[in-house]
Amino acid sequence: SRRTDVVAELRRQLMATEEEDNLSYPPLNVTTGNDTCILFYASNFSLKANNSVLIDLTNATFLTRNVDISASECSDSNTTLSLKYTKPVNGISSLEIRFLMTNKFYEGSARKWFTLDSVEIVQDGEKFAKFNVASISAPAEYSFHCQLVGTSNLYPARLIPSNEAKNWDVFISELQIQGFNIINNQFSYASDCTGFFTPGIWMGLVTSIILLWILTYGIHMIMQLTTNSRFDDPKGPALSVPQTE
């Protein structure tokens, strides 16, 4: 098992609490010399080719380690995680998946951020597919975590296909990746792709505001009610109230 500290999304940094994850396998690590330069984990890592052929790479990547990572590259500014598989399914002799990450300094935040720029798929050494990546970034000292990453429009972190990539579907569950500033072979604090204000929270807030406004208006109207200062006596003459009152 591994230990990770999870903090909220990039724009909200909460105090991290260390917690033990009940994982059945450790993350995949790429080393240069004695130092780990890339950490990669997913509870489900699958591809679908031509909307028909499902390729489950989870076991080959994290359990049996039947994957070649020798082509991976690490540097202070650019990192490439290369995953090569031999005959992952019938009909495909070789499959390579590349995760290309960069580390840049941004003046607006006065700090370095790492981003996953693109994901590439090379089938049989010839067919090339590229995905542009949206919303996968974190401070350079952090790792990145997301519950769902893939080509579906419903995923919070999406891989946008271009050229031949339209023939592929990617499904990654519980993705956590870090390509820079790894200490003690462990994931650093994680920036999560799920925002603090989810659609459900926004709906709850708006509904609460509307109900609070209705309650306030009702209390205000009740407070405007006045009672009669004089009452009619059935034994005496009828009470006459001038219109001015």
TrEMBL record:
Pfam families in alphabetical order: Ac45-VOA1_TM (PF20520), VAS1_LD (PF05827)
Single GO MF annotation: ATPase activator activity
Cleavable signal peptide: none
UniProt keyword Transmembrane present: yes
UniProt record, GO biological process: regulation of cellular pH
Keyword 4Fe-4S among UniProt keywords: no
One CC-aspect GO term: bounding membrane of organelle
Chain ranges passing through the membrane: 201-220
Domain spans labelled V-type proton ATPase subunit S1 luminal: 35-180
Membrane topology: Single-pass membrane protein
Subcellular location(s) of the protein: Membrane
UniProt keyword annotations, A-Z: Membrane, Transmembrane, Transmembrane helix
Limits of the V-type proton ATPase subunit S1/VOA1 transmembrane domain: 195-233
Recorded family membership: Belongs to the vacuolar ATPase subunit S1 family.
Record protein name field: VAS1 ATPase
